[in-house]
Amino acid sequence: MKILVVHGPNLNLLGTREPDVYGRTTLQDINQQIMELSGELGLDTVIFQSNSEGAIVDALQNTPCDALIINPAAYTHTSVAIRDAIAAVGRPAIEVHISNIHKREEFRKTSYMAGVVTGQISGLGMEGYLLALRACRKILGR
Amino acid sequence: MKILVVHGPNLNLLGTREPDVYGRTTLQDINQQIMELSGELGLDTVIFQSNSEGAIVDALQNTPCDALIINPAAYTHTSVAIRDAIAAVGRPAIEVHISNIHKREEFRKTSYMAGVVTGQISGLGMEGYLLALRACRKILGR
Amino acid sequence: MKILVVHGPNLNLLGTREPDVYGRTTLQDINQQIMELSGELGLDTVIFQSNSEGAIVDALQNTPCDALIINPAAYTHTSVAIRDAIAAVGRPAIEVHISNIHKREEFRKTSYMAGVVTGQISGLGMEGYLLALRACRKILGR
Amino acid sequence: MKILVVHGPNLNLLGTREPDVYGRTTLQDINQQIMELSGELGLDTVIFQSNSEGAIVDALQNTPCDALIINPAAYTHTSVAIRDAIAAVGRPAIEVHISNIHKREEFRKTSYMAGVVTGQISGLGMEGYLLALRACRKILGR
Amino acid sequence: MKILVVHGPNLNLLGTREPDVYGRTTLQDINQQIMELSGELGLDTVIFQSNSEGAIVDALQNTPCDALIINPAAYTHTSVAIRDAIAAVGRPAIEVHISNIHKREEFRKTSYMAGVVTGQISGLGMEGYLLALRACRKILGR
Amino acid sequence: MKILVVHGPNLNLLGTREPDVYGRTTLQDINQQIMELSGELGLDTVIFQSNSEGAIVDALQNTPCDALIINPAAYTHTSVAIRDAIAAVGRPAIEVHISNIHKREEFRKTSYMAGVVTGQISGLGMEGYLLALRACRKILGR
Amino acid sequence: MKILVVHGPNLNLLGTREPDVYGRTTLQDINQQIMELSGELGLDTVIFQSNSEGAIVDALQNTPCDALIINPAAYTHTSVAIRDAIAAVGRPAIEVHISNIHKREEFRKTSYMAGVVTGQISGLGMEGYLLALRACRKILGR
Amino acid sequence: MKILVVHGPNLNLLGTREPDVYGRTTLQDINQQIMELSGELGLDTVIFQSNSEGAIVDALQNTPCDALIINPAAYTHTSVAIRDAIAAVGRPAIEVHISNIHKREEFRKTSYMAGVVTGQISGLGMEGYLLALRACRKILGR
Amino acid sequence: MKILVVHGPNLNLLGTREPDVYGRTTLQDINQQIMELSGELGLDTVIFQSNSEGAIVDALQNTPCDALIINPAAYTHTSVAIRDAIAAVGRPAIEVHISNIHKREEFRKTSYMAGVVTGQISGLGMEGYLLALRACRKILGR
Amino acid sequence: MKILVVHGPNLNLLGTREPDVYGRTTLQDINQQIMELSGELGLDTVIFQSNSEGAIVDALQNTPCDALIINPAAYTHTSVAIRDAIAAVGRPAIEVHISNIHKREEFRKTSYMAGVVTGQISGLGMEGYLLALRACRKILGR
Amino acid sequence: MKILVVHGPNLNLLGTREPDVYGRTTLQDINQQIMELSGELGLDTVIFQSNSEGAIVDALQNTPCDALIINPAAYTHTSVAIRDAIAAVGRPAIEVHISNIHKREEFRKTSYMAGVVTGQISGLGMEGYLLALRACRKILGR
Amino acid sequence: MKILVVHGPNLNLLGTREPDVYGRTTLQDINQQIMELSGELGLDTVIFQSNSEGAIVDALQNTPCDALIINPAAYTHTSVAIRDAIAAVGRPAIEVHISNIHKREEFRKTSYMAGVVTGQISGLGMEGYLLALRACRKILGR
């Protein structure tokens, strides 16, 4: 069972900038926990991060997987291209947001991804990725 | 660690009506799995279902708990009273939706709860409740 | 052939308050005519009125019927819960409004029920209920 | 008691085109039933169909009647001229729609007629015309 | 100096229907005054009325004139075809409304004609046509 | 002179939850002051609180009074049923809000009640109820 | 028969600034023609210009007249105070615009005055004032 | 305790124009009652009226006071300048409207003042000012 | 293979009015080229033009064809009747616009036809009709 | 005559993913047909595909051409940068969409490109590219 | 080179009210720096402040200048009269805002001035005026 | 004091394409002036241009600086990713636009950057960058 985890733009800065807002957990910490739980659950997980919309579309097209976990970050609200790539890939997909986007700016309330993913998990911090892994395991196990 | 799980209107019909749409899993099945996982995670969970907005507000006010899991169903889109009750209770709260509300009617895309809960999990079926239990465990364990 | 007739909030006041606006026909008068025509048409009709959204959802869930006539009154414009209950019941349903809602306030022009009922009859006064009974008879007779 | 029944554009195709969508009942079948029930109810009914907005306005102006039944079809959503003609005629008028317009495209949800007719009947198929005849009989009988 | 005066749909009913709303002045009375003042001002005026959008477009295309006075009535708010015909004719044009359209329904506040006519006169009753004649005389006299 | 005072959902929690936001004045304190001032002003006041929309409609229908003071709380923004009940009762009615709703979330800025009450008092805390009592006294004294 | 003519802000610049846009006719030229035609029609006309909203309200309140002609210029789109003053004065009032406001910026399409004046004349240049004088003469002559 | 009472545009006409709409109470009557109650409550009250937005801003800036009562009338809906002056003054402020603005034109439903005042009282006629005085007394007495 | 080409309102003026805007190509020139290319492609083409919405609906209903090319001109934005006729006919249909409607007025950006035609060609001048003929040939050739 | 053909994001997947939706024609098949018809028409055509907005802007800037054919796919609805690049290039440009975007999601109905291209062809499948080539040939041949 | 600097309503309070929000720099301080830099740059600068929209329009009309710097403050969002005066004056004009208006209330995001000024500088505090002086110097020096 | 200047998409074409619109000043000319003034002001300035959103985000993350000047060009209106990067960087930032975006298309009036930058300068051409440098110098000098 191959899982692709995609982190969108600026998530590479997690934990190193504005720690009082986003905490001190780095993307490396998150990725390590993702890999550990993947091991426990018997999932073969690949992780990808990019600040470029086109590069994320390329990665979605070119990385074979059985299910997909994506935190599109800023591209959530602006990228039809990533939406179309998720739809084209045709795999179960879970959209993760670290913060509760409904407590932020108005424009963050719309997600181009929401209409093509299987489900969303938001507002639960780093834990959201781990819950998404469990959900993938469940979906693929059916 | 006490957890209150609230099911909103019409969820009591799960599995008995329109099985081709919602599947054959009943609310009783869901509740049994919630109780089982609660046992595993050491959570003391109470479950409440009502078709009445006022009764749900009453339950939120009167049931002491450390965290809250709520699937407000139809009231998601129409109840400021339940929103206010969740805010007044002042506990970590997770909003669960069985289906992906972004694939349904336009009016189901807005949630009065979203602005006051800690996080949301949607589109992941019955599994959403179990992931929410794990998230509560994590939040309370911090 | 069992028919459930549901009257929404404040309809119990018909004929007793603001007679110059709503006329002097009481809900009892309407119900009597509904029962008389039901007799003529061979329909086994049950009538229910409540001011509570939750109680109406309960009644829709718990009253077995072959077809449904509902005047949701104020809940027309605010209740997704009643909409969902009508959809879950899965029976032919006719929405009745005594007055022409298009001649009233702007917010009365939208109906959450409209998308799930078979048809609507509005603006024809008490006669609307009787026409709805005939329509039910026709639909069930097919 | 003279009744004018007006069928709007494309209704002349009923039953001959797209039978899987609209059924095999032709406008002739509907008109025959309208005339039969008119006979039973003692109504002197005249039926008019046109694809032209101007011709419908002309007919409304030039056909003396005591009450009016109109299915404006596509002109429901675009014709202020027909609205004004109905208002000028100043007779009880009932707007009929064969299908439930709330289950169709967004633009079909607004009706220029709604503000000037006595009432509407929609979603009840051919039966809608017959119920409208009964309602006219009732209104004129008062 | 040839002037074309166009009266839109339902204006032929002026003075004969709803006299308490629109007064007892008939379209014939108005036309007579238009012809009288035209004589005084040395204008060669032709008057046209139709309930049909297409017939009004035809008339605008086929009636040679130096200036145009049009009361599009209901078509004010719905006819791009008449707008395009006025623009194609390329003559000075004055839009007249008998009543103040800003005191009526919301949808009467937008005019497709407004963007292509020289000017508008509204709310001044029958007098509006006579003022429009004077304005045409002035414009053509320059 | 009988006055009915209605407190809407979650107001029973005043002073016991989130004291740093809403202060430490409880609903009991408010009610006591209402009763004291009622005594001074010679008003026979009855107080009712409920979290249920239907129960508030029932109370409005069933409690005879000469004037009405209502803080609909969350139902301000969502309940057409309570609006209709106030209109049906047909008594002078004053809408009270403890906080200034224009300084809160966007959805709190619309009130279904505003169109049917005599007046509103908002943002003046507990004092709003006392001013409303004085206003009722004045209105009934005319 | 006393007529008050009010010119709004920046109209004092007519003919002296941007002559290629507004022509070389000055406000003095317009006023002279207004006075001349007033003489012919037997009207006792007073003319007032101000750039200040408050001063225009004052003038409307303090200048006795039988009818009112106002070109509110920029205040057309922003002044409820002038609207209220016109309504309070309770005299026939005609709103004049020199240019066709529908061919200009979007925000110039709404007029606070339109709902309280008798009629509007726009797009007919200086001639608009003269037509308005004739209309006043007609209205007062009734 | 100094109180500044500000009356906005056209309020000087109260009682002298349109008495059937606004009653026969003049602004002088209202002011007299304000001064009398001020005396009773031990408040040192200054009253100001102007039709000019700028003059009201000047008055707000230049009149020292402990609390402020303002009926901005037409400027409620159009003046950010008065809003900013109230905010700059930084005193408790109560917005008063004589009529219930929610029963009037759509544009009267928004208030630029609402976001910066302490509270609002509307729809209670002249009594609104007196209640506002009592509220000021209460606020300053804390 | 029969093709129906429909030209909407005012297109009969092409080349004779406003040549500096629309060029000097007349509808006759276009039709001649349509007939020539039809000959080359082996298509049996019938051409129809009308300024009347109703006449266009009649033509669509009464002209047997295998595919349809329509330039609805002004009716693009206002005619649900033509939309419904195209849908009822149930043939491949191509919508042609001579100019790029996205460079014109805002209201020209919506097309009632777009949802029921096979495809659109716009902004390519007279050539659009010829490309549409080729597309029909291709579609019918499959 | 040099033509640049640009394919936007995810078009490289045509024919290989979701064949039941998009058919089995691959981008290679389309490109081959484009090159064949280019040969026939004497056009020197270069084809470019990328999933990256920036790379498409670069290609538009750096590839000399006499005309441009672009299917911006998802970037149609989100890229002002590509719009600006097309405008800066200043060559005739034709926007092609394989499917009829008006039959898809609401957000696909707006095109940032539409305002700067010469024309659009949509809904005609692969044939759209070939028609666009013919149109370019025509435009350049003038 | 004459420069007119206009300060809008409430700016005269700068530095004396709410110093924790707006700092302690007074308008006098700002004006002194404006005069000093004007001296350095060889500009003959006149400064004007008023709380009255009409007075600002008067000043714009009556003060001869080669360029204009204006901070319209609250009138930014409500004054078409000042916009029209700036346009009539026909000089280079720079709009200055001390704070970043995009970080404040929604209604502060629209500027009537923006469409007629040469440019804007916002969010840069007092420095904005000085940069505007330099920009005027540059523009006039061309 | 390190300053990063970022030029967005298509700005590399300045001066070489459409010189009649954008003038003949190239980006190289602008950059040279930026470097010259930087020298004068003692600023250590780095300049970056890219057509790729992702590359701009990368540059913002990876280029250490004390303040930031950015002309996001087309990305102003579409990029949340660049907004988030500016916010993450946490340095004073000034948004520059060469033209006055309020005189262009509607969609150019919204800026995702506006909410996170310190200030904006627009409409002042190349001079805008130089003023921004001065503003940075001032801000960093505090």
Order of helices and strands of chain A: EHHEHEHEEH
| Helix content percent band of chain A | 25-40%
Taking Cα atoms only, what radius of gyration of chain A do you get, to the nearest Å?
Answer: 14 Å
Alpha-carbon distance between the two ends of chain A: 12 Å
Q: How many individual helices of chain A? A: 5
Overall, the morphology of chain A is globular
| Total count of domains of chain A | 1
Query: Which oligomerization state do the chains in this entry correspond to?
Result: homododecamer
Structure report:
12 copies of one chain form a homododecamer. Chain A is an alpha/beta fold and about 140 residues long. The first copy, chain A, has a single domain, classed as Rossmann fold (3-Layer(aba) Sandwich). The first copy, chain A, has 5 helices and 5 strands, in the order E-H-H-E-H-E-H-E-E-H. In chain A, helix 4 links the parallel strand 3 and strand 4. In chain A, helix 3 runs parallel beside helix 4. Chain A starts with a strand and ends with a helix. At the A-J interface, helix 3 and helix 4 of A face helix 3 of J.
Task: List the SSEs and their pairings.
The structure is a homododecamer of 142-residue chains.
Chain A: E1 2-7, H1 19-22, H2 27-41, E2 44-49, H3 53-62, E3 67-71, H4 80-89, E4 93-97, E5 119-122, H5 127-141
Parallel strand pairs in A: 1-2, 1-3, 3-4, 4-5
Helix pairs in contact in A: 2-5, 3-4
